[in-house]
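Re: Re: ligand-bound prediction request (bumping)

Still looking for help on this. To restate: I need the protein modeled with 2'-deoxyguanosine-5'-monophosphate bound, output as structure tokens. Inputs repeated here so nobody has to scroll up.
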Amino acid sequence: MNYDKNNIFAKILRGEIPCKKIYEDEFVLAFYDVNPQKKIHALVIPKGEYVNLDDFSSKASEKEIVGLIKGIGAVAKKLGISEVAKGRGYRSLVNVGENGGQEVPHLHFHIFGGEKVGKMVS
Ligand code: DGP
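Reply:
Sorry for the wait, this slipped through. Here it is.
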């Protein structure tokens, strides 16, 4: 699986284009989606170069895998939507490839919240 270093999220990671940052640590960067589908719509991306979840699950180190999952939890908490933060919950999903509807070829988890998210798949 070839990683395109010029994809938009690679450019955001390098600071070449701006984002509305929510959270950052050693393993992840989280920022608001430019085209929000719900009241709160965030994206959490690993700092490593992974095309999608297949690529990540087969090549990422255990530290990176744990870091990404913990990062998603940290972002939901920071946004005040996690049940840990006494929020009302949220949905996280990841699109993979053509059938999954993935547009940007750098792995990203969507986080939707701030309101009832609705039907799981339309
Ligand atoms: P997906 O279809 O799962 O690949 O979702 C890609 C998401 O990325 C989509 O909801 C819009 C968002 N997006 C695309 N370009 C940018 C950008 O330049 N900045 C930000 N913040 N989000 C972007």
